[in-house]
Write a structure and sequence with these properties.
The chain is of the alpha/beta class. The protein has 2 domains: 137 residues, Aspartate Aminotransferase, domain 1, CATH 3.90.1150.10; 254 residues, Type I PLP-dependent aspartate aminotransferase-like (Major domain) (Aspartate Aminotransferase, domain 2, 3-Layer(aba) Sandwich). Helix content is 41%, strand content 17%. The strands form 5 sheets. The chain has a 7-stranded mixed sheet with strand order 4-10-9-8-7-5-6, with helices on both faces. A 4-stranded antiparallel sheet has the order 13-14-17-16, with helices on one face. The two termini are 41 Å apart.
Amino acid sequence: MSTQTDILDLKKIRADFPILAQEVNGKPLVYFDNGATSQKPQQVIDVINTYYSNENSNIHRGIHTLSQVATDAYEKARKVVQAFINAEHEHEVIFTSGTTGSINTIASSFGKAHLKEGDEIIISTMEHHSNIVPWQMICEEKGANLKVVPINDAGEFLFDEYEKLLSSKTKLVAVTHVSNTLGTINPVKEIIAKAQEHGALTLIDGAQAVPHKKVDVRDLDCDFYVFSGHKMLGPTGVGILYGKETILNELPPYQGGGDMIKTVTFEKTTYNELPHKFEAGTPNIVGGIALASAIEYMNAIGIDNIASYEDELLTYATAQIKTIEGVRIIGEAQNKASVLSFVVDGTHPSDIGMIVDKLGIAIRTGHHCTEPLMNRFNIPGTARASFAFYNTTKEIDVFIEALKKAIKMLV
């Protein structure tokens, strides 16, 4: 019986990522911090170099050749993203600075237009701070209320409790597709359908989902879907806000400035059409182009192949870490992505992280921008190993041995 390890050409894939060939502290790098940011293949790096070497120009406002070349590449990138998430229209794809920028755009724009005193927004206990704080800010400004869906001890979304929170006061539900700390894959399609029964809009934070699984926004039927480029092989500083055309057309702009206008007088400004209405100022042009290159790289491997192989890595790592006495996994949902968060009895996560780093292994420690979630489990933080399709079971073996050494030193 073949596995995804047999199907994927891991040697070739790893050769595409130059950073993986280096040593850290005299040891071969084992990079298990993909939940924070992914590494970049040479193909994406080359696109960035080519743009700045041969194509650099501002877009949309120039008639000269370089401006046309840059504009064409940027708008082609929008079409690549549209196809990747199966958006109905390319103008439903808004380039932003990242997931955080996308959520803040909707919190401000939707909040100012539609939120009033006594209205309610629903999030979940497992949200990243970026999907908590913007809603707190707009609720405080408007006198609205923020409601939080609890989770169980396995780190799973409690759907029955969610249903109890929904009412005619609910204006928007904003939840993560995949938890960055727990790896939990939430039942977002069902969450969206239930919100629609109460007339509420939905925003899905897909920052941890899009790198690991196929996302179809039309199948989900969400109103907004947001994600970042740097977690899916692309550069930092670029992300996507998908929104349904009818809703985006109705919302006011988030920022004012160039490109989001049709006409400006001192008396009145007329706003541009989608997508430009939400893209004020000079964008991260090369970021958008490089994000398209990252998507094309993932497509060439196959999103389903990536998901299956990463499931194998998670299953293997979970089995191995469970053999170590004193280790407790935080987040054991039945439906998980390739994230393994854990605590070790008698140690602090940061101490674990520092010791394994000396052995060349990069993991993340702390609260992972999910402090309320840490409070739910009554812990200060976790150590987190997060896997990507360029990782291997051999690297997991190295990590497990390093973890055993760290525990022996600390306990």
